[in-house]
Amino acid sequence: xxxxxxxxxxxxxxxxxxxxxxxxxxxxxxxxxxxxxxxxxxxxxxxxxxxxxxxxxxxxxxxxxxxxxxxxxxxxxxxxxxxxxxxxxxxxxxxxxxxxxxxxxxxxxxxxxxxxxxxxxxxxxxxxxxxxxxxxxxxxxxxxxxxxxxxxxxxxxxxxxxxxxxxxxxxxxxxxxxxxxxxxxxxxxxxxxxxxxxxxxxxxxxxxxxxxxxxxxxxxxxxxxxxxxxxxxxxxxxxxxxxxxxxxxxxxxxxxxxxxxxxxxxxxxxxxxxxxxxxxxxxxxxxxxxxxxxxxxxxxxxxxxxxxxxxxxxxxxxxxxxxxxxxxxxxxxxxxxxxxxxxxxxxxxxxxxxxxxxxxxxxxxxxxxxxxxxxxxxxxxxxxxxxxxxxxx
Length: 393
Ligand code: NAD
Ligand code: MG
Known about the structure:
Elements: E1 2-7, H1 12-23, E2 28-35, H2 39-49, E3 53-56, H3 62-68, E4 76-78, H4 80-88, E5 93-96, H5 104-112, E6 116-119, H6 123-138, E7 142-145, H7 148-157, E8 165-172, H8 182-186, H9 190-193, H10 203-211, H11 213-226, E9 233-237, E10 243-249, E11 254-258, H12 264-272, H13 286-289, H14 304-314, H15 318-334, H16 340-353, H17 362-384, H18 388-391
Parallel strand pairs: 1-2, 1-5, 2-3, 3-4, 5-6, 6-7, 8-9
Antiparallel strand pairs: 8-10, 10-11
Nicotinamide-adenine-dinucleotide (NAD) is lined by residues 8-14, 35-36, 38, 57, 83, 97-99, 102, 120-123, 147, 199, 201-202, 205, 263.
């Protein structure tokens, strides 16, 4: 039996993880489950898996969770410190499925006790890459990339030496606006941007896929995971989302990982590693698909990719600011405060404003993150002609 904690259990990644656990009830024992505010869903999961600890991130939801689980003998807690406490409980594996910078402290807590961490939360590697990686090696933790492209690369690398690798390619579906004109993108609604053609995911990453900043964040993620510079990391738009990542070797060989667009494929790899965990995901039928296509991304309609590459090269505080400004801009777009194209424009303006130094500890990561958020809300306020005080949550 493998002991498992799921951070972000009610989300898209958390739900897919628990679906795999359900397929293998004899292989996993759930140690802790967390969520931010969905009390009813979290309570149902707690009753089903009976974890040692159930944590709700939002303290305002604590009483409701306590009430839902009263008399069950299940331990409950609330707040950011409790999320960290959940990650600190001795589970062998932790699925880091919280969205945003909020996932950093709990994921790091799992790393610091030497756990095997299946990392969905790419923000850990974008906002605090060098610190996060240093903690992984200092505490002899194991990082398993769960993001589908990075999981594909991890599989296709098959433990091979870095010097044999010429380049890595990650693929992008292109999102809902792959073929859209800029004029259409300018007036795109949250509903249209949330309509992802291939993947069912949480709102932030779905909007990030529509702007394609998700691919930019993933380039930074790949840079941190596989230690390759910007010029040896490629993006290809591949609307079928069948090939997820490719490793180009020095002898001209290219190894790719393929699979249907279902996160249970990379998650099962992370749950079973080094073994493979069988699952009921739909099998790939290439004959039915007929053809796979690949094109270079359009940097004019999707300026987030070159912007993220510039942050990758600059290092220091730039990736931290990039992530923070994006979190704010996406929230503001979903709230109809700014237009779709304003998302990347706001991020660009926040990045241009700032010359702060590289974060050297967790506190400075959070300080940079907070300052970038304030700057992003100011930019949103300017664009939406509203005072900042009326906008900030
Ligand atoms: P989601 O919005 O569906 O779920 C997020 C989870 O985090 C929920 O359980 C929610 O309760 C919790 N959460 C939200 N805000 C929180 C906070 N402030 N504090 C504590 N918990 C909080 O998101 P998702 O799509 O499952 O994505 C989760 C992470 O995985 C993200 O970092 C995303 O980039 C990454 N990822 C997701 C997918 C996917 O297919 N969904 C693929 C690759 C990577
Ligand atoms: Mg991905």
